Amino acid sequence: MRVPESAAGSYARVPGTAAPPAGARGTLVRYGVEVERGLPLDGAEFAAEVHRVLNDPRGWGHGGVMRFERVAGGPVRFRVALSSPAMTDRMCAPLVTGGELSCGHGDRSVINARRYGEGAASYGADLASYREYLIGHEVGHALGHGHAGCPGRGRRAPVMVQQSKSLYGCRANPWPHPD
């Protein structure tokens, strides 16, 4: 998919809500999803993918720690924002993203739409797993997690390793709690 260098420069909150899975336990975390106006991506599809990743048993809610509810308005703990490369650069400043990287900035997980659409060399052709990693990593920042290092050559990379840049000798891993 071809993602333009820039779009409208403002966000629209994706309408609708998504409840946590039935029977889920843990602290309820309300979040929103935003998409930069003018991007050639379906906001509802992106929001559904974010919700699926956040509530996956391998995700941040693992073991009933948290459960995630997408809301269309009102207060939220964080926002996941799909952004053009130019908007990503602006929203992530002073971090230099070079139109390539994503970031966690305050209460916003800024997802570079070009990366979301094309993936990263570290994941090869596995775009689905890369998208899971990208969402999990940037939301990890919103939940207070910093970057991690590779625990050893050939071992699974923690989700907070900057896997978009390199695997640093580790194996790709999109999940906070892969087991």
Automatic annotation (TrEMBL):
Domain DUF3152 per the UniProt entry, residue ranges: 3-167
InterPro entries in the cross-refs: DUF3152
Database matches in Pfam families: DUF3152
Domain of life: Bacteria
Protein name in the entry: DUF3152 domain-containing protein
